[in-house]
Amino acid sequence: CKVVTPGTPADAKGLLKAAIRDNDPVAFMEGELLYNFKGEVPEDDDFVIPLGVADLKREGSDVSIVTHGKMIHVALQAAGKLEKDGIQADVLDLRTIRPLDMDAILETAEKTNRIVYLEEGWPYAGTGAQIVSMIQEEAFDYLDAPILRVTQADIPMPYAKNLEMMAKPSADHVVEAVNKVLYR
Hints:
By secondary structure, this protein is an alpha/beta fold. 38% of the residues lie in helices and 16% in strands. It is built from 6 helices and 8 strands. The protein has helices at residues 9-21, 71-84, 102-112, 127-139, 161-167, 171-181; strands at residues 2-4, 26-28, 55-58, 63-67, 89-93, 96-98, 115-118, 148-150.
């Protein structure tokens, strides 16, 4: 089974076409909060993004923010805030979690030597825990600091909007984690 998590309209189009054409089962995860998100979409009917190919959404040299799905927007917002402090962040959108583009992860790890992994899920036994474990095993020699994860709080999701916003990962949480891996 393959797992897809697009975060932009163009990625949604290209990955959905790839999922439909794939001979194996594909779980296509989409965040309903992205339905109102606007962005450029290629008009080409043959536009297909191969499954298992990550996309470097922003180029940087100091730290890598690795994420997937709608968290790509939080990562890009955090990278913008970090830039004001003189920190350049690679922002890698995995786009598919299975197959995982480990080559792209290793490339960004080797370039920046520091990784912050951002995901919307809970911290315990989730997708991020598995991916960070794999990164730690494969990229250990490249890392100058432990990988930090930014996740939602390890609590049941509250219904009150203000409490929900406090429980979800934010750009400020990412900035805080980046500062820790940079020993700032």
